[in-house]
Each structure stands twice: as structure tokens, then as C-alpha cells.
Amino acid sequence: MFYGTVVWDPWLIVAQIVGIQCLYYLTLGAFLTIFVGTRVSRMTLVYFFDYATVTASTATGWCVIVSILLSAVAGAVYLVYSIERAKKCLDFSATLYIIHLFICIAYGGWPSSITWWAVNGTGLAVMALLGEYLCITRERREIPITRFRSNYWFIPHFDWSSQFYVYNMDLIL
């Protein structure tokens, strides 16, 4: 199948969404442990999902903000290796942050903090734009083509099972 052809595979899409969501929360947990875990006596899910912890008025709040933004950068790298297409980066980034919004609403209610919206909106933009940039740079790399030896020939034949011409590389001695 060619690179540009699209096959509708909903199970693959769901698996990619779940995988990216899990990697995002693992990364967020690692950054929160590094930055916030040294400042508080007990790490809880409050720092993941409660909008009140995302504040610019305390040092711990700034550590939460930095953790969220660094997780967005890591999420962009995850998009490169799991999605591999620049035009899908915005879709998967928005899906991740919409799911995160629903989890935050279920955990602590509607986020009424402007800081929470600004930080998560910035995280969404960073993840989508950086992911697109990294995917485009990866897509634009040259494909290495090795030279075939002179005793190899492409011999086309018709494959009746798939009804397409198939090119086999047969050794001519």
C-alpha cells in the first residue's frame, strides 16, 4: 500500500488515542514528581486534574505549569513516532486535551481558572504545532535508495488473487 493511501481503521485510531493519552499522563506524572514532588509532602491526583493547582501565584503552581508544558513537548515527540502524519497532529492533540478536560470536570468540576485555560491552551498549541513541525521534518527526509546489482531484474507477472501486477525480484544467473 502506498504511503498516501488512507485506510479507515477505527481500532487503530482508538489504540493510538489511548496510547498517547497514557504516555502523556506517564510523562506528566514524571515531571510532576520531579518538580512538585520535591515541594509537597504527598503527591496526589489533585496536581493532575484539579484546576486550582494550576496557578501563577505560588511556586508549586509554577512547577505544575512547567510540568504541563514539558509534557506537551514530550507529547509532540510521541505524535511523531505513533501518528507519523503532520495533518493528524492537531486532531490527536485536541482529542488528548478534550479528554483531559472531561477528566478534570469529573474530578474537580468546571475549570473556572483563567490560568488553567491559558496553560492547557498553550499546551495544546505547543503539542500540535511542534508535532506538525517534527512530522514534516521527518516526512521530508530523503528515502535512501540502494543500487541493485546488475544480475537482479524486475520481472512483472499477474497475480490472480489480488488482480494486480506484482513485481518480483528474481535472481538471473
From TrEMBL:
<feature type="transmembrane region" description="Helical">
    <location>
        <begin position="116"/>
        <end position="136"/>
    </location>
</feature>
<keyword id="KW-0813">Transport</keyword>
<comment type="similarity">
    <text>Belongs to the SYS1 family.</text>
</comment>
<dbReference type="InterPro" id="IPR019185">
    <property type="entry name" value="Integral_membrane_SYS1-rel"/>
</dbReference>
<keyword id="KW-0333">Golgi apparatus</keyword>
<dbReference type="GO" id="GO:0034067">
    <property type="term" value="P:protein localization to Golgi apparatus"/>
</dbReference>
<feature type="transmembrane region" description="Helical">
    <location>
        <begin position="12"/>
        <end position="36"/>
    </location>
</feature>
<protein>
    <recommendedName>
        <fullName>Protein SYS1 homolog</fullName>
    </recommendedName>
</protein>
<dbReference type="GO" id="GO:0005829">
    <property type="term" value="C:cytosol"/>
</dbReference>
<keyword id="KW-0812">Transmembrane</keyword>
<dbReference type="GO" id="GO:0043001">
    <property type="term" value="P:Golgi to plasma membrane protein transport"/>
</dbReference>
<feature type="transmembrane region" description="Helical">
    <location>
        <begin position="92"/>
        <end position="110"/>
    </location>
</feature>
<dbReference type="Pfam" id="PF09801">
    <property type="entry name" value="SYS1"/>
</dbReference>
<feature type="transmembrane region" description="Helical">
    <location>
        <begin position="56"/>
        <end position="80"/>
    </location>
</feature>
<dbReference type="GO" id="GO:0005802">
    <property type="term" value="C:trans-Golgi network"/>
</dbReference>
<keyword id="KW-0653">Protein transport</keyword>
<keyword id="KW-1133">Transmembrane helix</keyword>
<dbReference type="GO" id="GO:0000139">
    <property type="term" value="C:Golgi membrane"/>
</dbReference>
<dbReference type="GO" id="GO:0006895">
    <property type="term" value="P:Golgi to endosome transport"/>
</dbReference>
<keyword id="KW-0472">Membrane</keyword>
